[in-house]
Each structure stands twice: as C-alpha cells, then as structure tokens.
Specification:
The chain has one helix and 21 strands. It is of the alpha+beta class. Among the domains are: 76 residues, SH3 type barrels (Roll); 73 residues, SH3 type barrels (Roll), CATH 2.30.30; 71 residues, SH3 type barrels, CATH 2.30.30. Strand 19 and strand 20 form a beta hairpin. The longest helix has 48 residues. The chain is elongated.
Amino acid sequence: MKMSKIQILKNKSLRWTALIAAALTAVSIGLSVKTSTVAAASTTAAKSTAVSGSQEKPLSGTAVVTYPGPGFVHLMSANGSYNTGTIYDRYIGEGTTWKVYAEKTIDGQLAYRIGTEHQWIFAKYVTLKTPSTTPAKTPTTPLKPATPTKPATPAAKSEETPLSGTAVVTYPGPGFVHLMSANGSYNTGTIYDRYIGEGTTWKVYAEKTIDGQLAYRIGTEHQWIFAKYVTLKTPSTTPAKTPTTPSKSATPTTPTKPTTPTEQGTIVPVEGVTATVTYTGKGKVALLDGNGNYSKQYVAKKTTWKVFAKKTLSNGKVFYKLGSDQQWIPAQYVNVH
C-alpha cells in the first residue's frame, strides 16, 4: 500500500524531531557533567585550605598549667588523640611550667606543643608567658627517654630545705632526664612519670639528699632532679648551707693556712657575689672561724658559694665569708665572680 505524500512528510518530521531532542539531551548531560566537575573542584579547594590551616608554627615561650578541673591535664598527639594505654600516654599537673616549641589548631582549638609530637595541650588550659617568634629547638629524644642511673644501694633520705634559684639542665646523656619523687622512685607508668630536656630552665624550690646525692625540687613532691644533672643559678640570699661531711673515699686535706686572721681586720659586707672553689690540692678546703681557727667544716673543689662579706687583714691577706662566722675561706682558694 502506497503512502501519500502527506504521510511521508509527516514521518520525516517526526524523525527530525526525535534527532533534535536527542541532541539537546546530550548537550544537557554535557553541561551537567561540567557543572559537577566545577563543584567538585571547589570542594577540593576548600578542603585543601582547611588542612593548611592546621600546620604547626614555631613558637618559643613557657606555658604555666592553669587547668581549673580536678586531677591532671591529659596530653595529646598532633592528630588530637590522647594515646591512652600507649607509651605516649602522659598527664601534667596544675601549676607546673613547660617550654613551648610550637602552636597549631587541633579540633578547632588552639594548642601548644610542649615536647614531642605526642605532647600537645589546648591553650585554654595554660597561661603562655614570654612568647617569641624565634623557632625553638625541636627535641630529638628517642621514643623511650633514657633514665639516669641511680646508686644501687639506697641511702637514708634527708629532710628538704627551702632553696630559691633556677636550674639549667646540663644532662650529658641521651634523651631526657627522668624526674623522681621525694622518696627516689621514678614513678614509671604512673601519672607522675615526667621527663625534662637538656638546656631547659626550671625554678628551684628546695633541696635535699636522695640516695646519698644532692637533689633539687623543681615543682611538686614528684618532681625532683639530681644536682649533678643541672647548673644552679641565682641562689637565694638565705644563709649558705653547711658543707656536708666529706665521704670516706675523699678524706679532706687541711691546706696550710697562709695567715691566721687573729685580728678582726676590715670586714665589708658584699652582695651579688659568688665564689667558686679553685683549690687544686687533695681533698677539700677547711674553713675558718672569725678568729682564724679551723671550724671543722669543709667545701669541695669546683663548688660555688654565695659571698656575704670580705675581710682584709693589715698584712693584705683576704678572706671571704660563705655563710656564718664559722665559714671563712682564704681568697687564694677561690675565684670570685
């Protein structure tokens, strides 16, 4: 059956309509894909900007913990995790002071790094002091800091004596110095487990003998450090401590008295002066009283003492007072600063 011309034209029109619709659909799909790609690129850019804002920035200063809540402040890693149950699980107490190395934003809050990458604390829990734009030295301690060796045989613990000054850590070994409690224990694995780094400075509150060695308290009763690992600076103006009795392994040798200051001489009070013992003989240096008699007290070589007065005799000989009237030392055995 033959189709009429009208029917043929009608069929051609329908085919052209279908082709045009298909073309428009393809263009629409292409535009949609392009729009989605642009949207995805914008999301990626925004995400990239957010990540760059969380990078740490060097910061030098000190942070005093002012956490108002109960207990201690739990430190976290750079990613915001608290490392509970791992070797990086650490807490610090209210009122303690820490060196700050860097700052960054963690979980939308400002935080400071006070040690390794696993020792971050939120800024809201501390008071920042003396900030500086100079990059701080990043600790290079091993994952498990070294613990200084203590004497094998514990000795009796002495009572602490108040002491005012600062202590700079000069520990020559690897890693950090492990702090101990007043009883000499290192508190490994407890909330009092603490380490401090070489070159850091700490306020000194007291001194005592722990396991036969002089130690300084630089915080709470759980923050003691042996004197041999620090350099003590700016001692208080309280009377100097009485030198300890020399050990059996180093019996004091009484140096020859250059002159017995039987006369009172001229005594002049001094302030802000220290004397370091430079005696090169055997044993320790025997001190004298104000009348020139040996007082049965001694000071060790290379120790430093606060000077309270200077005495000059008529013959030109000079003596320095290191404490009470029983603690005078000839000037020839010290270097005065």
